[in-house]
Specification:
With 596 residues, the chain is an alpha/beta fold. The protein has 4 domains: 184 residues, Phosphoenolpyruvate Carboxykinase, domain 1, CATH 3.40.449.10; 228 residues, Phosphoenolpyruvate Carboxykinase, domain 3; 79 residues, Phosphoenolpyruvate Carboxykinase, domain 2; 39 residues. The strands form 7 sheets. Strands 1, 4, 5, 6, 7, 8, 9, 10 and 11 form a 9-stranded mixed beta sheet that branches. Helix 11 packs across helix 17 and helix 16 runs antiparallel to helix 17. It is globular and about 75 Å long. It binds ligand TSX and manganese (II) ion. The site of manganese (II) ion (MN) has 2 residues, from loops.
């Protein structure tokens, strides 16, 4: 027999028998084992173009880039169809949808039965995390989507390397995905933490089908982290290099639409000549305690699955370079000469486009040309600011953890937690204010603790407790900070310029973590005193910075009322220490008020 790409390249009996079992269920016509080679990428790409799954783009402007349009009913993650399937409902907790494992296997099993008839099953072995790292995990995704195979090739270490790492072990995540007919009525994303298994049906969209990312690296990962004593977090990782070559690593959690990718790839302003930001990751951090008691982080991913709209040379030049080659664009608009376009891209708005649905679009159109959740899938190696340690099996030592939200009021530009408890409290309070477009109600805070509400694979109160409990293991802990780039003046203008200017805040954070800059104690944390933040060369009035950094006790009193309500929704697993911390802050505000 000649060697064929479809012959199983593995002798792992656990893997082979599971693939056979899943093939008996889904009944594909063909099975293709992915090896991760360049030749395979070529084949998959040609097939995708032939089948209309990918559209070639202008090879001169965007070498190696392609456009995919998803079904218009399938453009985002579906939280209401995402389930944590633990033996008891309590394990999933009140913030997750729950299905009993047997019910979920039965229900989805019926949908999977014969679902790949006439189709090809791709077997995608992949590693989340650097090869050879004790923190890395192997997954295998079975899918009927060649688009998934091509995306997984960018987002993970995919193919032979994963089979080599797995060896004869039974320790791998079992992922099964079938696109079906992309009917929202038959769309489910089910996680079985106890079985290290993920079943996804009825969607072709990234977050629902690239099972290594949100499903494994966060939902299953967080469950394993709790069980095994580490942290799987929705955090970027970056290195700050000083002109003297000193490196400081920070991890940062922000809810969606706060500019995590922009922050991870930030370019410092002119004033910070010689300073450099290096990207380790833009979305997910796996962190464990090292032998020296510090927290070490790896980025489990190998690429960026980022939101396209708003990406420009103004907001993120490194991302613009990153997506200029070997990138898959999903649901963006296309120019007549085969370039891509989205709202918030540089330059004039093209007069005519093909919109994300494939329809002609003109600048008179009232509809958006690119879908607001349109994406790029791009290799990390394309990023000019990629840290040389992004692939280091040991990870990078984290000196500071930053939590951030999108808040028009209350939360100051930056504040350092007094201690670990206070820092975990910051994380538990994260949230974003809703904009009129989203709900019609402006200024309502939607809580997203640790930016993990949609991604925690178990009970949120127990997750908070896990964070509190990690303190005893991390004998050399990072300092914890809360930031807010989005505070507004009374007349609704952003007070802080943000973007590259965030370097000024980051420098204070680095210097605080290294115990070499001052701060002022407030009721809620340490804040920079006048002169502690380097504002040289920044062309904004000092009163505006004062307003951005101000702490208003009346606003905080409202905040604590809102938090009491939110903590109540977590149920009886809500750690008492966090509730008491909230009560303590209220008591201290009331004492200040009583003193007049
Ligand atoms: O990503 C953002 N960051 C972090 C950058 C490192 N965004 C975009 C958020 C949507 C994804 C920001 N938007 C940031 C920010 O720091 N700040 C703002 C708010 C803002 C918007 C426009 C201006 C200023 C602030 N424009 C001018 O001041 C001219
Ligand atoms: Mn994310």
């Amino acid at each position: 027999m000649t060697s064929s790409p479809s012959a199983p390249p593995s002798t792992n009996q656990h893997l082979l028998s599971w693939v056979t079992e899943m093939a008996q269920l889904t009944k594909p016509d063909h099975i293709v084992w992915c090896d991760g080679t360049e030749a395979e990428k070529q084949r998959f790409t040609e097939l995708s173009v032939k089948e209309g799954i990918l559209e070639p783009l202008n090879a001169e402007k965007l070498p190696g880039c392609f456009l995919h349009r998803s079904n218009p009913n399938d453009v985002a993650r579906v939280e209401h169809l995402t389930f944590i399937c633990t033996p008891t409902k309590e394990e999933a907790g009140p913030t997750n949808n729950w299905m009993a494992p047997k019910d979920a296997y039965d229900k989805l099993g019926k949908l999977f039965d014969g679902s790949m008839k006439g189709r090809t099953m791709y077997v995608i072995p992949y590693v989340m995390g650097p090869l050879g790292s004790p923190m890395s995990k192997v997954g295998v995704e079975l899918t009927d989507s060649v688009y998934v195979a091509l995306n997984m090739r960018i987002m993970t270490r995919m193919g032979k390397a994963a089979l080599d790492m797995l060896g004869a072990s039974n320790d791998f995540n079992r992922g099964l995905h079938c696109t079906l007919d992309v009917n929202p009525e038959r769309r489910f994303i089910c996680h079985f933490p106890q079985d290290n298994t993920i079943w996804s049906v009825g969607s072709g969209y990234g977050g629902n089908v690239l099972l290594g990312k949100k499903c494994l690296a966060l939902r299953i990962g967080s469950y394993l982290g709790k069980k095994e004593g580490w942290l799987a977090e929705h955090m970027l990782i970056l290195g700050v290099e000083s002109p003297e070559g000193e490196m400081t690593y920070v991890a940062a959690a922000f809810p969606s639409a706060c500019g995590k990718t922009n922050f991870a790839m930030m370019i410092p302003p002119k004033r910070f000549k010689g300073w450099k930001i290096w990207t380790v990751g833009d979305d997910i951090a796996w962190m464990r305690v090292g032998e020296d008691g510090r927290l070490f982080a790896v980025n489990p991913e190998f690429g960026y699955f980022g939101v396209a709209p708003g990406t420009s040379n103004e907001s993120n030049p490194n991302a613009v370079t990153t997506v200029s080659r070997d990138t898959i664009f999903t649901n963006v608009a296309k120019t007549p000469d085969g370039d891509v376009w989205w709202e918030g891209k540089d330059g004039p708005i093209p007069p005519e486009l093909i919109d994300w649905k494939g329809q002609p679009w003109s600048s008179k159109s009232t509809e958006k040309a690119a879908h607001p959740n349109s994406r790029f899938t791009a290799p990390a190696q394309n990023n000019p600011a990629l840290s040389k340690f992004y692939d280091d099996p040991a990870g990078v030592p984290i000196s500071a953890i930053i939590f951030g939200g999108r808040r028009a009021t209350t939360v100051p530009l930056v504040m350092q937690a007094f201690n670990w408890l206070n820092g975990v409290f910051f994380g538990s309070t994260l949230g974003s204010e809703t904009t009129a477009a989203a709900t019609g109600k402006v200024g309502v805070v939607r809580r997203d603790p640790f930016a993990m509400l949609p991604f925690c694979g178990y009970n949120m109160g127990e997750y908070f407790q896990h964070w509190l409990s990690m303190q005893s293991k991390i004998t050399n802990p990072p300092k914890i900070f809360l930031v807010n780039w989005f505070r507004k003046s009374k007349d609704g203008k952003f007070l802080w310029p943000g973007f590259g200017e965030n370097m000024r805040v980051l420098k204070w954070i680095v210097d605080r973590a290294r115990l070499r800059v001052g701060g002022q104690e407030t009721l809620f944390g340490w804040v920079p005193r006048a002169g502690d933040l380097d504002l040289s060369g920044l062309n904004i009035p000092s009163e505006q910075v004062d307003e951005a950094t101000n702490i208003d006790l009346a606003e905080w009193k409202n905040e604590l009322t809102s938090l009491d309500e939110f903590f109540g929704t977590i149920g009886d697993t809500m750690p008492k220490a966090l509730k008491l911390n909230r009560d303590l802050l209220l008591a201290r505000i009331e004492a200040v008020e009583a003193a007049g």
